[in-house]
Model the fold of this input.
Amino acid sequence: MLKFIVRILINALALFVAAWLLPGIEVGGAASSGDTTGVVLSYLFVGLVFGIVNALVRPIVALLSLPLTILTLGLFTVIINAGMLMLTAWLTSFTPILFSVDDFFWTAVLGSLIISVVSMVAGSLTGTRR
Done:
């Protein structure tokens, strides 16, 4: 259970860094009306949704796109990650917490690269990547 909570915190941190660096990624909604607690809860909720999407949908998409991933020597994984980011944005549009990514190229692609790097570094520091 603790590992699951740490993964949600890492996802929230990675989404925060991506939203801070890229102007096309925004997190907001009813809970984030300017107070710090609302903003933190918004990022935690979006981190939870992003974690669920990565746990349930990403393995299926990665398996179905395996020939294309092999053909591009693994570079198609970046496109899959950007697609998971866009899917998270679409899923959270049905909730009071809004997570928006304005376009696929280049915002979602760069956002997925930033999220991957931050998740990798934070996961190795906390020991959840083992």
